[in-house]
């Protein structure tokens, strides 16, 4: 029987497959592929877990941002209310100050009027006394003057007692 190269190639191929099966190469390849598939599944699960965690963290930060914006809006509103209150208070104090100053000015004006009236009265009394004295000096003689002085002294003594 004559064996050609194809026959020997076929025998070599069969021996190769027998050796591969004997050494359990398909099991090792399957095991390696299974390990690699498990590793990929683990990485996918880890990536999914990290994605969910990132979404949770993003949602938490968005919630905190909204809370911070609301708090900032509250602070701004409180500052505006306080500014309005301070403005109203300053306006009221200014009005009270102006009213007090007006009242004080009016009081000083009234006092000046009273002083002026009293000064005019005092001048009028002095003028009347001087006029009366001049008239009495011209019309009254010594006896009348003595009677008037005694009468005035009597009145003063009576009032002092």
TrEMBL record:
CDD domains: ATP-synt_Fo_b
Main localisation: membrane
Keyword Coiled coil tagged: yes
GO MF entry, a single one: proton-transporting ATPase activity, rotational mechanism
InterPro entries reported in the protein's UniProt record: ATP_synth_b/b'su_bac/chlpt, ATP_synthase_B_chain
Coiled-coil region list: 30-96
Subcellular location(s) of the protein: Cell inner membrane; Cell membrane
Record Pfam families: ATP-synt_B
One Gene Ontology cellular component: plasma membrane
Membrane topology note: Single-pass membrane protein
Family: Belongs to the ATPase B chain family.
Physiological role: F(1)F(0) ATP synthase produces ATP from ADP in the presence of a proton or sodium gradient. F-type ATPases consist of two structural domains, F(1) containing the extramembraneous catalytic core and F(0) containing the membrane proton channel, linked together by a central stalk and a peripheral stalk. During catalysis, ATP synthesis in the catalytic domain of F(1) is coupled via a rotary mechanism of the central stalk subunits to proton translocation. Component of the F(0) channel, it forms part of the peripheral stalk, linking F(1) to F(0). The b'-subunit is a diverged and duplicated form of b found in plants and photosynthetic bacteria.
Subunit architecture: F-type ATPases have 2 components, F(1) - the catalytic core - and F(0) - the membrane proton channel. F(1) has five subunits: alpha(3), beta(3), gamma(1), delta(1), epsilon(1). F(0) has three main subunits: a(1), b(2) and c(10-14). The alpha and beta chains form an alternating ring which encloses part of the gamma chain. F(1) is attached to F(0) by a central stalk formed by the gamma and epsilon chains, while a peripheral stalk is formed by the delta and b chains.
Protein name (record): ATP synthase subunit b
């Amino acid at each position: 029987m004559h064996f050609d190269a194809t026959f020997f190639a076929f025998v070599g191929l069969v021996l190769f497959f027998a050796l591969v099966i004997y050494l359990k190469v398909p099991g090792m390849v399957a095991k390696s592929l299974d390990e690699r598939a498990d590793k990929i599944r683990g990485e996918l699960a880890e990536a999914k877990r990290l994605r969910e965690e990132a979404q949770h963290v993003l949602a938490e930060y968005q919630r905190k941002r909204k809370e911070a914006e609301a708090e900032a809006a509250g602070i701004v509103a409180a500052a505006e209310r306080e500014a309005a209150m301070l403005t109203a208070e300053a306006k009221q104090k200014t009005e009270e100050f102006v009213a007090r100053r007006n009242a004080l000015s009016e009081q000083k004006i009234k006092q000046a009027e009273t002083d002026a009236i009293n000064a005019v009265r005092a001048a009028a009394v002095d003028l009347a006394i001087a006029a009366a004295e001049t008239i009495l000096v011209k019309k009254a003689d010594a006896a009348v003057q003595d009677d008037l002085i005694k009468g005035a002294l009597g009145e003063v003594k009576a009032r002092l007692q």
